[in-house]
Write a structure and sequence with these properties.
globular; mainly alpha; 490 residues; 6% strand; 5 strands; 5-stranded mixed β-sheet; 19 helices
């Protein structure tokens, strides 16, 4: 496949992985077994029925009644677990029996695909931090001073806020048209309380402010904490410009040399993208069966339509009329990054590939790409903000069997906008972000468990939209910067 363009190689890898995963799921996705030997001490018998949608584990101790555990992400009532990991915390014995005797061939193969695909993601993560530092430093030092940095930051932030709000409004419009939560589309609304702890919106935003001032810059590099890294790198570069002279020249040379080396390393890793995508998509399709989507079909449709409108209509119109570029050609240039983002569901993991595509295939300068993209991967989440707004209104429809009033929907929109900026540096950002929005409109936090079954696939889609929005932001900022440069030269 070497003669094919990279995006075609990745697409072929994605299709092949999907076919492999579906084949495994259809022909080896179910395992039913009864076991009387090789069990943990004290267990006399056990039986497991394992499918992609639901798993039942029964075991009996001598002289005691049978114990039943169900793993079902759609209904989490008493005696049920949302995942295998949750079961390990609830009943170590049941988890051991399942792992040793009950896992279907499709799930075993899928987990190995996940581990192999994870090697590709680890390589991308390996180069992400040094690439951001060297690229951002060389880009800022090329801007010529604090005024240029401030202007680019204002434009970048304005673009991110506008597109995020447009995405949220699109999501709200679609969920009001489709109304996926009306009519009892999803079972199991009465779920057990989720373990996610709530945090106030003010606390979340203040945590982001604290992240702008890292107590240990080296620790931020190791973590990695991207917002801290970006803030310190910008400050370091601005003070390098202030010092000037030989110091400025030495730092600029070192940053450029480091950036050239990291881009060469990134380019080599990118050639492995088709293989990485193959394994990652095979894992998803092998372990996720179609049955879990049936109860949530209208919800998935609402999210998919809203994401499609934002990605295929709103953002391309901005690229065409603001950036003055062909949206189709720019999307083709960014296709390797978009496909990788879809398969990996990781904006930060895809960042090195995104930076390479924007500069080498999209024709955006390093000084723009190195500034806009790391910042976007940290605070710009169009797809995630849209998804959260749809999810909250869907949950509200399930809970009230009616739409939220307009005043409540406006609260959802602005809370989702603020939380999409504030949640970037928080573990499990999507869950924490949704808790904040649910609390803002007085909805039960535990109802988010209803949508966890389809979260992985939708996460892939919204991550691609996040990356596409970041890339479009580069095109917009680049055009505006070039226009200013032309006016200044007149």
């Amino acid at each position: 496949m070497r003669h094919l363009a990279l995006h075609w190689q990745i697409l072929i890898g994605m299709v092949a992985g999907t076919l492999l995963g579906i084949g495994l799921n259809v022909f080896a996705g179910t395992r039913q077994v009864s076991v009387a030997e090789g069990l943990p001490q004290g267990i006399v018998s056990a039986s497991i029925v394992d499918t992609s949608a639901r798993t039942e584990i029964r075991y009996t101790r001598a002289g005691e009644p049978e114990v039943l555990w169900v793993i079902d992400p759609l209904t989490r009532a008493l005696g049920e677990a949302k995942s295998v990991e949750a079961l390990a915390q609830l009943d170590a014995t049941a988890h051991q029996i399942y792992q040793e005797h009950g896992v279907s061939l499709a799930k075993r193969a899928g987990l190995w695909c996940k581990r192999l695909g994870g090697l590709f993601l680890r390589m991308l993560q390996m180069v992400a931090v040094p690439l951001i530092v060297t690229s951002l430093t060389s880009g800022i030092l090329g801007l010529g001073g604090g005024e240029g940095v401030g202007r680019m930051f204002r434009r970048t932030l304005s673009y991110y806020l506008v597109t995020s709000m447009l995405a949220i409004c699109t999501g709200l419009l679609m969920v009001n048209l489709v109304r996926p939560g009306l009519g009892g589309a999803a079972a199991g609304a009465g779920a057990a309380a989720d373990e996610t702890r709530a945090a106030s919106l003010g606390d979340v935003l203040f945590a982001q402010l604290e992240a702008l001032i890292p107590s240990n810059p080296l620790g931020a590099l190791v973590a990695p904490d991207f917002l801290s890294i970006i803030a310190f790198t910008i400050a370091f570069s601005l003070f390098t410009i202030r010092v000037g002279g030989k110091v400025l020249e030495s730092v600029r040379t070192a940053a450029q040399v480091g950036f050239d080396v990291m881009m060469a390393m990134t380019t080599a890793i990118i050639h492995l993208a088709p293989i990485g995508v193959f394994f990652l998509i095979a894992y998803v399709t092998a372990t996720q069966g179609a049955s879990v989507f049936q109860a949530l079909a209208w919800y998935v449709l609402a999210v998919a339509l809203a994401l499609g409108i934002h990605a295929c209509i709103t953002l391309p119109l901005i690229v065409k009329f603001v950036a003055k570029r062909s949206p189709v050609e720019f999307a083709r240039a960014m296709s390797p990054a978009l496909l990788t983002a879809f398969s990996s569901a990781s904006s930060n993991g895809t960042l090195p590939l995104t930076m390479s595509n924007v500069e080498k295939r999209g024709g955006v300068s390093n000084r723009t790409g190195s500034f806009v993209l790391p910042l976007g991967a940290t605070i710009n989440m169009d797809g995630t903000a849209l998804y959260e707004a749809v999810a909250v209104l869907f949950i509200a429809q399930l809970h009230h069997n009616a739409n939220l009033p307009l005043s409540q929907q406006i609260i959802v929109a602005f809370t989702a906008l603020l939380a999409s900026v504030g949640a970037a540096g928080i573990p499990h950002a999507g869950l924490v972000m949704m808790v904040i929005i649910l609390q803002a409109v007085n909805l039960p936090v535990e109802l988010q468990g209803v949508i966890l079954a389809v979260d992985r696939v939708l996460d892939m889609a919204r991550t691609s939209v996040n990356v596409w929005s970041d890339a479009c932001g580069c095109a917009v900022v680049e055009t505006l910067e070039n226009r200013d440069a032309e006016l200044a030269s007149l």
